[in-house]
Inverse folding.
């Protein structure tokens, strides 16, 4: 049995998220169908590093699967891309030791959230960036975001629908990069709760608008109350940027 | 009668080109419908700086129109964008002197052609870049492209369907910018024949692949024979970047 890891990028616009669900139209469904058409293994399932919501994109989502197929690993990328629609592209395939597991082995993940600050939306970024034209205090946003770094209970930054037993997570790094007409928020953490990065982005926008101040963040974290943080920013600005693993 | 100039960007993927045609689904049709819904002038027509082909994009296409409407010019952008689909965005509106004409007044135009040189296509650029993964000799491409600068008869670089009385045009500037996994070709000229930038891009790729050498270009120009230049590169990599005008 071979354990194959793939890195995949996708435009999530037209999908109901990564993970399979009864109503279909997920990235996982499309990937599994493409792999099964190659291996003829009807029961083959893939293991994603985690789910992404409907409309969320990925630059470097990671998944693995076990197969009896004899297809050499270096042939996999071309073979699977030939069977995928053009909004899903496998970038890399590697043969891994049996113990590699895309979710359990992950050390951390990095997400990117993009805000298009042009007066009128950049038509070429409309599927990948939140359009927000209004003065934003970027320095205040950075100060507030730094308050999130470290180990915290992120209940205030999670959807009330979250069913996780613990809301304690660690954020290792947050960076807010400013370029003409664009803000890019990169967040690296041990793991993320449902809607967590989108709520962080929405809260950062509220800080930028002066609706919250950077000094409010510690109290918002401490309250463990979703209603105190900012809004859940729209899905289409979010991209799962990469998933970090130890050496195997 | 006011003469209003607008700068518009569009994602041409889902349109049959800029200019109105009997089969419909053009950028011009959509713009005219939006403007007419504001001005209630049934016969209103817009004058574009020129056509763009089906699937070609624009960062800064320019058009003008004459209207009796009293809408203040500073209100136009918001008003029209509210009536446009999200793949067409008006960036600027200006009140111009009566003699301004988007096509006749243009001094030059700049087009961009993007080549995605990644091994596997960048999913976020798939609508805006030609994917071409194979070693390209960028220095040779630049040398060959420089042979096109100046005034030439560009018959070898025009679709045989061109009905222009003269194929003499002037290219003022060509630049080929290289960045990781991307080549961007910018061409500025007095005007362009049907498919001309796409044939220049396709010829540049052939030079990059060694199928033509930079020194072949003068003879290809001199022969005035379309069959000697490279292929017509796909439309989706092309963007009308900007249109240059004198001060008004």
């Amino acid at each position: 049995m071979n354990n194959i890891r793939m890195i995949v990028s996708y435009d999530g616009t037209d999908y109901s998220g990564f993970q399979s669900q009864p109503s279909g139209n997920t990235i996982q469904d499309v990937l599994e169908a493409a792999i099964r058409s190659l291996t003829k293994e009807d029961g083959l399932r893939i293991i994603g590093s985690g789910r992404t919501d409907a409309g969320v994109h990925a630059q470097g989502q990671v998944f693995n699967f076990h197969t009896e197929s004899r297809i050499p690993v270096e042939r996999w990328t071309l073979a699977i891309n030939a069977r995928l629609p053009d909004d899903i592209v496998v970038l890399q395939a590697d043969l891994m030791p049996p113990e590699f597991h895309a979710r359990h082995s992950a050390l951390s993940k990095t997400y990117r959230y993009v805000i298009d600050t042009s007066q009128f939306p950049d038509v070429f970024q409309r599927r990948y960036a939140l359009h927000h034209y209004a003065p934003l205090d970027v320095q205040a946003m950075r100060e507030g975001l730094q308050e999130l770094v470290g180990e915290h209970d992120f209940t205030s930054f999670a959807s009330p629908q979250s069913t996780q037993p613990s809301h304690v997570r660690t954020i290792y790094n947050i960076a807010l990069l400013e370029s003409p007409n664009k803000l890019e928020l990169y967040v690296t953490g041990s793991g993320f709760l449902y809607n967590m990065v989108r709520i962080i982005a929405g809260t950062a926008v509220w800080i930028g608008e002066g609706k919250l101040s950077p000094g409010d963040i510690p109290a918002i974290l401490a309250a463990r109350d979703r209603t105190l943080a900012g809004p859940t920013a729209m899905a289409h600005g979010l991209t799962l940027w990469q998933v970090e693993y130890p050496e195997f």
